[in-house]
Amino acid sequence: MRSFIWNLNIIGLLAVCLFGCNRHSSNPLLHQVHSLLEVRPDSALTVLKNLSAVEEMPEVDRAYYALLLAESTDKNELPLLPCDSLLDFALDYYEDGDKEMAAALLYKGRLLAQMNDKKAAIENSLKALEVLQNYPEDTKSRRLIYSSLGLWYGDCGLYDKALEMQNQALHYSCSAKDTAIAYHNIGYVYSMRDLQDSSITYQRKAVEYAVRSKDTNMMVASWHSLSLFYGRFDKTDSAVVYARKVFQYVSDEHKMVNAYYNMGDLYIDLEQYDSARYYLEKSLLLSSSWSMPYWSLAVMESELGNFQSAYHYLDTFVMVQDSLDVSEKLSEVQHLVYKHQTELEVKDEQIKSRRIIGWIVCMAIIVCFVLILIYQHRIDRKNSQQALYEQSLQHANEKLSIMQQRIKENESSLVLLQDRENQNLDEIAKKEQLIAQLRQEKLTLRAWLFQQTSIYKKVYSLYEQQEVDKKARKVMTNSDCEKLKKTVFEIYADYISPLQIQYSQLTEDDLLCLCLLEAGIPPLVIALCLGHTDTVAFNKRKSRLKVKMSES
């Protein structure tokens, strides 16, 4: 009983733990979005933004939603600030050893880098690498982390460390596009060190692998970067060649703005001011909130001696730049608001989690208690039935003893009467009739006693198969057969004893067959009890019994 209760408690606790520790979302819609991310990140982002009642999602789905939203936002090259509160929720939800924790740290680091907090960004990325030590198969996350670390180390002036990280990203690159990105970043680090040859060499490699990838966006980005590198190192003609390549394939408005500005800047270096003005004004037409074209126009007008126009563009540049500074401050304030809101939401979720865990524990305890009561009730009922059976058995045995004694007394009287040479035939006939009646009552009592046993129910269930097809019949198991022998031999002990004395060759199965026949059990049921599906084997046994009993 104690062992059973202990096992129930263990099972309940394990169920609670397993229910609480499952941190992998099974939401089919979110998994479909994850599959869509690699091929159509813009569509994936649209689906995620159109999902309603995100706050009402289960915690596991909400945390997974945060990772998908951050990844899709990052792939679409959009600011990650709107994902801040959700990423904080994911960081609070996942455990340190979870693979998802690495993804949450990765995108939190990128968000912090966008907020110009490079130190915190690097710390988050290094923590993500620690988590990924347990997941060597996740090369994609490693590549993204090393790539980001290389850029941030470079911005901090740690160029050797930056190159080490970018070479690690190159090591984990699995496609031509990934390799192109790694070579571009390595070239970028070399450009920050003003190493012209190395910078351009790696950027040309980036262009080579971008063309291999057949990814139009990647090719445009690589040509644009190579054009910028050539322009930086005063190789303006080569820069113009690659800038023109960009115009052949670019379709994105944001990239078109950069391409126009770059071409205008290059034409200033070539002193082709009309062309420069055309491209710079085109870039402003697409994006008037960008300050750098105003600066380039101011420089160009000053070189042409148009100081009034130069002052106008310079003044506009200052105004736009001031508005950008205000926007950055607003972003910082918005970040603080998001952070405060996230802290409140995390506290609410923690309170909800504690309540849910409390309810689960209470329900587990109640279920265990109910199971214990049910089990105890079954044990008490079984003990009560056993006591009644033993009492009935004792009473029946007493009646059997009395009947046996009366049979012996009447047999003795019969012998005496027969010794007196049948002096009283009527009395002898009465005594014989009484003996036969007592034997029949004894047989009936034995049969009744057998019918009260638990094993008789299984025998009766076999009796119901007489009309069933031979192949579908079920036979009695070995353990039930042994129990049947034990029960029958106890009830028919006085019937078996003379048989064993007179016919020593009889086996236990032979005696069981004789007792079951005595109890009125049909031959087919006896065959099923002995493990046979028909009466062929039983009939053969009956033939052997006749031989054995005739030889003795």
Automatic annotation (TrEMBL):
Main location: cytoplasm
InterPro entries linked to this entry: Bac_ResReg_Asp_Phosphatase, TPR-like_helical_dom_sf, TPR_rpt
Coiled coil spans: 393-441
Record keywords, A-Z: Coiled coil, Cytoplasm, Membrane, Repeat, TPR repeat, Transmembrane, Transmembrane helix
Localization (cell): Cytoplasm
TPR repeats mapped onto the chain: 257-290
Transmembrane segments: 356-375
GO annotation, cellular component aspect: cytoplasm
Pfam families xrefs: TPR_8 (PF13181)
Family named by the database record: Belongs to the Rap family.
Name of the protein in question: Uncharacterized protein
